[in-house]
Amino acid sequence: MINPWDERYAREDYIYGIEPNTYLKDKLTAMQPGKILFPAEGEGRNAVYAASLGWETDAFDQSIEGQKKAIKLSEKKGVNINYFLQSLTDWVPEPEQYDCIALVFVHIPESLRKKVHQAAITALKPNGILILEAFTINQLERTSGGPKIAELLFTADQIGDDFKNLQTIEIQETQILLDEGPFHYGLVDIIQYCGIKSKP
């Protein structure tokens, strides 16, 4: 069976563009570079940007086509990223590896979402930062991006509950104009979250 993400990423252009997510960019430019992870990173635009700022950058996705394009982009930009093939379903990270983990439009069913979000918390070092941007349930009727299945979209209450063991720096549902390639374009309803893992 063909992986639908391989099919989507197999086209020549970068379907979400090659520029970093704006929310992520704003957060990373205010942080001291360390070690960062991008789960479900797709074509690599965010990982490549982080590496350009001096972050030691790990990324993974289930799509080999996404991996190929990410590596191609990193070579074009002259940076190094460690991009490996991994499904979110099987992701069991070692504890306290990362200074930052970025979940950018990672939309998955509720049971897996909770597992992945807990894994991200586990993988953060004390004082590590988690950054998340995703579509809210209000995006369901829009054509500007995101899944058309309600279960795959988020609310602030869900995110607040998933990351209740982190200290919330910021959580907001808002509307922005998104310009991230042909699949993310126009007015969107999103949630933006940033939290820090307290020392034990």
- CATH architecture term: 3-Layer(aba) Sandwich
Give the tally of structural domains.
1
What is the average of the pLDDT values?
95
Query: What is the H/E order?
Result: HHEHEHEEHEHEE
Helix content: 25-40%
Give the overall form.
globular
Largest sheet: 7 strands, mixed
How many beta-strand segments? 7
Which residue ranges are poorly predicted, with pLDDT under 50 across at least 5 consecutive positions? none
CATH topology, what is it called?
Answer: Rossmann fold
CATH class: Alpha Beta
Gyration radius, in Å: 16 Å
Structural class label: alpha/beta
Spatial sequence of strands, sheet with the most strands: 3-2-1-4-5-7-6
In percent, how much strand structure appears in the residues? 25-35%
The first-to-last residue Cα distance is 45 Å
Tally of individual helices: 6
CATH homologous superfamily label? Vaccinia Virus protein VP39
